[in-house]
Amino acid sequence: VKPRRPTIGVFDSGMGGLTVLGALVRLVPEADYLYFGDTARLPYGSKSAETVARYASGAARYLQQRGAELLVIACNTASALALDKIAASLSVPVLGVIEPGADRAATCTRSGKVVVIGTEATISSHAYQRALAQRGLEAREKACPLFVPLVEEGWTDHPITEQVARIYLDEAFQTGGADVMVLGCTHYPLLKTVLRRVVRPDVKIVDSAESTAEAVRQRLHLQPWTPSSPGAERRTHPRFTFFVTDSVEKFRRLGERFLGFAVEDARLVDLEQEAIAVR
Amino acid sequence: VKPRRPTIGVFDSGMGGLTVLGALVRLVPEADYLYFGDTARLPYGSKSAETVARYASGAARYLQQRGAELLVIACNTASALALDKIAASLSVPVLGVIEPGADRAATCTRSGKVVVIGTEATISSHAYQRALAQRGLEAREKACPLFVPLVEEGWTDHPITEQVARIYLDEAFQTGGADVMVLGCTHYPLLKTVLRRVVRPDVKIVDSAESTAEAVRQRLHLQPWTPSSPGAERRTHPRFTFFVTDSVEKFRRLGERFLGFAVEDARLVDLEQEAIAVR
After folding, report:
1. ipTM of the complex
2. Which residues share a beta bridge with A182?
């Protein structure tokens, strides 16, 4: 019996969610993927909760219309500010990146103290603080607004990036005791090498992209994938469709850096026109 | 006879255009001002020409409907990518920031060689290169994508910013001979102190915000303003109305840094709803 392949929708404001998609493909290759990058309106990190909810809900509904049976909000800002509103506008199940990251932090910590880094909007929402508090953990939250631009400049392993990281993280860790750092932004996995050099060796780094992919695998009741799984050869070829609201060419060019492999079937979508057409 | 005060519309993707508004108020205090900051959709610097044209034209038409008799596109990206399209969608005269900056560079240079710095989108449009070539000048263009985030982080006079500036500008000036540097982004006037330290003392820095304000003054056939001008006491109190597409509170809080005085009458506008209402 050939099991039906699920279609998973992955939404982000831009490229960052591709790190989540990359982690998903590694952990859940027995699915097909629709990715929506709202590149015309990025970054969400500087926008208000109302605006983020409105934009993300529109994109999420688009993915549902296109056949997504499970939706991953692979954007920390949208997960932090608008997950309930997005879920309320959909009929399929929705997962954000905050809860899986908090779960993983709870598993890793011994001291019960966790540092969370993210964009200004994610941090000032205190979504991670609340999620960690529910698990009995104490959070020290630190906004690192220069990390995304540094990644986008391509300075992922650059002396400037290391200095900036030292400024941000010295402040974040100064109160002491934290033994876990949660990467609360989907761009940050690209800075892992630098961040590993800057934090103490005993601090565990929780990559919320990986944690979220693991949560999706569990949600779909799938076994960990191995090359010897039944149908393994078929499972290794998910289909991908990418929808973006700005330049397809730029998305293709930069996407590979985040995803780890080439972006092929990318299409331009105008959500504002779609909204008018629906009315 | 009390002369009628003109109403000038100033458009930018966000806060940066406030440096142009600040320069305008100093040079042309005998006007009232409408400012539109498309803060929900910033930054334009990473968007395609089509998207920038569509967004900026909508905002410009809004300012015209609100009574602007002259429109300043105080956004280098929109001026570079979409000035003709914006002008075609309006009935009032429109000024961008590129031509005034190029004019000023032509006045200042002796070597005929000019360095232009700006966002990725402005630089890759080569709008400054074309404008300078029309004046017989040779341009070396350099994108400085980290400058805007550094300004927004508040690191306007910070050792990291100085190092980043050295990396960018050493590269820009290495071919030699340039004696003028044009600040091709409305955020960059806030970095003048750092930039002055980094470039050679004989390099003149052209602030396109100031050049544009001067072009507006000339366009309106106004004399340079002095405290002893007729009606001087009245002229020192322009009225300001600010329209933004995202958080009014955040715009007020950060606006003062760019403008030099407090933002008071700021209102939230939803251009997408406006567009639907018009249909």
Report:
1. 0.83
2. A116, A206
